[in-house]
């Protein structure tokens, strides 16, 4: 059976960061993130589900429309923290960017997500 935190991180990548439709994305956010969750990008932070959705929308709008995020290595869980290494670029082509997500879990949901861009 897959670890719950691993599944949340996989779902976050696929159903939040790869979802262009903000209404559909919001349903995934509600399942994955706690009500008061925080999202941290370099030099940027937001709090709450609506703000996370808006932040992802802005990020996706600033990327070419054919870009997707792909998991590059197995997710690592260390107690209540998780790490996911990802790549971004056109589907089926070389990654243009790489980075990692560090998630802090609390009460079965993501409490905070730190996004690092290499």
Strand and helix map with partners:
Elements (H helix, E strand, L loop, with lengths): L3 H14 L4 H11 E9 L2 E4 L1 H13 L5 E5 L4 E3 L2 E10 L6 E10 L2 E9 L1
Parallel strand pairs: 1-7
Antiparallel strand pairs: 1-2, 3-5, 4-5, 5-6, 6-7
- Quickly give the structural class: alpha+beta
Low-confidence stretches: none
Largest sheet: 7 strands, mixed
Oligomer kind = single chain
* Total number of beta strands: 7
Strand content: 35-45%
- Secondary-structure element series: HHEEHEEEEE
Q: Kindly report how far apart the N and C termini lie.
A: 32 Å
Averaged pLDDT: 95
The whole-angstrom Rg is: 13 Å
Shape: globular
Q: Helical percent range?
A: 25-40%
Descriptive account of the structure:
This protein is an alpha+beta fold. It has helices at 4-17, 22-32, 49-61, and strands at residues 33-41, 44-47, 67-71, 76-78, 81-90, 97-106, 109-117. Strands 1, 2, 3, 4, 5, 6 and 7 form a seven-stranded mixed β-sheet that branches. Helix 1 (4-17) packs antiparallel against helix 2 and helix 2 crosses helix 3 (49-61). The termini are far apart.
């Amino acid at each position: 059976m897959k670890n719950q935190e691993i599944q949340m991180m996989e779902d976050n990548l696929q159903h939040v960061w790869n979802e262009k439709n903000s209404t559909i994305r919001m349903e995934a956010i509600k399942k994955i993130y706690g009500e008061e969750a925080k999202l941290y990008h370099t030099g940027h932070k937001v709090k709450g589900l609506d703000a996370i959705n808006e932040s992802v929308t802005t990020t996706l709008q600033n990327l070419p429309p054919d870009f997707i995020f792909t998991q590059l290595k197995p997710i690592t869980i260390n107690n209540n923290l998780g790490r996911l290494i990802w790549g971004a670029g056109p589907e089926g082509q070389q990654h243009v960017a790489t980075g990692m997500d560090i998630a802090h879990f609390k009460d079965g949901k993501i409490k905070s997500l730190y996004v690092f861009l290499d």
